[in-house]
Amino acid sequence: MLALCAVFANPAISQSGKGTIVGRAADAENALLPGARVRVEPGNVSVITDQVGEFTVIDLAPGDYKVTITYVGFLPYTSNVKVVAGQATRVDAVLKVAARGEEVTVALEEEVKVAHRARGKSNRAWAQFG
Questions:
Q1: The domain over range 2-126 is classified in CATH as 2.60.40.1120
Q2: Looking at the whole model, is its pTM more than 0.70?
């Protein structure tokens, strides 16, 4: 009976021909990382981990994906995964603290662009933070 419940627990996944990526972001001491940014490529899909460091990306076509997880003060974590129709692919990321002097990139959802003209030419300057 329990197995039957598990099969029918999420009919949307099993009948849609799509797959899901689920996972968790933590540091080396297993401390959870709520608010970590999770990016899935191709598709440019981004989600944020919840208060217990968990995330779910739904409605993905079967295929190969690159999952990148970033969190302020940590090095990015990247994993290549295969999504299968009707199944959830799990990614449990352990992010490493950035060493002193290492460059850490903080990504914003939307970049700030400033356009201006100088000497009759159009130039674009990208705002930098931090």
A1: yes
A2: no
